[in-house]
From TrEMBL:
Domain of life: Bacteria
Task of the protein: The Vlp and Vsp proteins are antigenically distinct proteins, only one vlp or vsp gene is transcriptionally active at any one time. Switching between these genes is a mechanism of host immune response evasion.
Family annotation (InterPro entries): Borrelia_lipo
Membrane topology per record: Lipid-anchor
Compartments where found: Cell outer membrane
Pfam families reported in the protein's UniProt record: Lipoprotein_2
Name recorded for this polypeptide: Variable large protein
Any one annotated GO CC term: cell outer membrane
């Protein structure tokens, strides 16, 4: 994606200072978007999110977003400082920095705190019950992603309540959050994959943003006590508590809960003691994270593109 700028010819001798200034802004925009094309390729291509991707790598990804925002902010400020005669442009640049770049950087830094630890797909062929994600990690991810989404997604983009799959299928996905391994059957893993496939990345992001910033850890009800995506992610593995109940039984909420648990410290899903079960569970975790983050990065890129074009106007 490249920014194009049409500027009238300078009738005087030498280069028009305004033309030089605006051209430098246009070139800055092009350089910034090139960075995010690379990020998009990393997500969707061979270097994208996989089961083997570490949670800490996702954290570094968020850190890189913050660093990129800060780099662009500095370049914009330097250009404005060097061309101080254009007050109207300065006002637009300052607004873009405070309302867009700073907020995206703030959210990315917070989200990075939550994405730490071993691989996203950490189920093993030895078989095991589920492990809840760290509450502190999930809270950081929810807060950080919410800060970014509030900037980069419109109010009508994404639906936290989006749901399309059968009610009983959504209920059975709770078996991947159980304290026992035996219910993590192939058909239940497939139901989780169907929930993720039934919604958009924007739906998942909105479900994350509508989660509580202080989710409740229910030690007795486990997954059956979860009411939103954050509480799905931190749900205790309680034996025989293996159904997702009505308030959380939406495809977008379930997919968001899977993504949060996969990214956050300690989070793990139940898996039977067989290789194909572990691979399938890990694939579901990676799919949820990939869909969430690829949508987020595209939204960031488009938002910043729009802001830079506004400056060029």
């Amino acid at each position: 994606m490249t920014l194009f700028l049409i500027i009238g010819c300078n009738n005087g001798g030498g280069e028009d200072p305004q033309k030089v200034f605006l051209t430098s802004i246009a070139n800055l925009g092009k350089g910034f978007l090139d960075v995010f094309v690379t990020f998009g390729d990393m997500i969707t291509g061979a270097f994208g999110i996989k089961a083997e991707t570490k949670k800490s790598d996702v954290g570094q990804y968020f850190t890189s977003i913050a660093e990129t925002m800060e780099s662009v902010k500095k370049k914009l400020q330097d250009e404005v400082a060097a061309n101080g005669n254009y007050e109207r442009v300065k006002i637009v640049v300052d607004q873009f920095i405070t309302e867009t770049l700073d907020k995206i950087a703030e959210g990315a830094k917070e989200a990075a705190k939550g994405a730490t630890g071993d691989v996203i797909g950490n189920a093993t062929s030895a078989g095991h019950g589920a492990t809840p994600a760290s509450k502190d990690s999930v809270v950081s991810l929810v807060k950080g992603i919410k800060t970014i989404v509030d900037v980069v997604l419109k109010k009508d983009e994404g639906d936290a309540g989006a749901t399309k799959t059968a009610e009983d299928d959504k209920k059975d996905i709770g078996k991947l959050f159980d304290g026992k391994k035996d219910d993590a059957k192939e058909e239940n893993i497939a139901k989780a994959a169907a929930s993720i496939g039934a919604v958009t990345g924007a739906d998942i992001l909105k479900a994350i943003t509508t989660s509580k910033e202080n989710p409740v850890e229910n030690a007795t009800e486990g997954i059956e006590g979860a009411t939103d995506a954050a509480e799905i992610a931190i749900a205790k593995a309680v034996n025989d508590k293996k159904e997702i109940k009505e308030s959380a039984k939406k495809d977008a909420i379930i997919a968001a809960g899977i993504a949060l648990r996969a990214m956050a410290k300690d989070g793990k899903f139940a898996a039977k003691d067989e290789e194909k079960s572990a691979r399938a569970v890990n694939g579901v975790a990676a799919s949820a994270v990939n869909k969430t983050l690829s949508t987020l990065i595209i939204a960031i890129r488009n938002t910043v593109d729009s802001g830079l074009k506004k400056i060029n106007e």
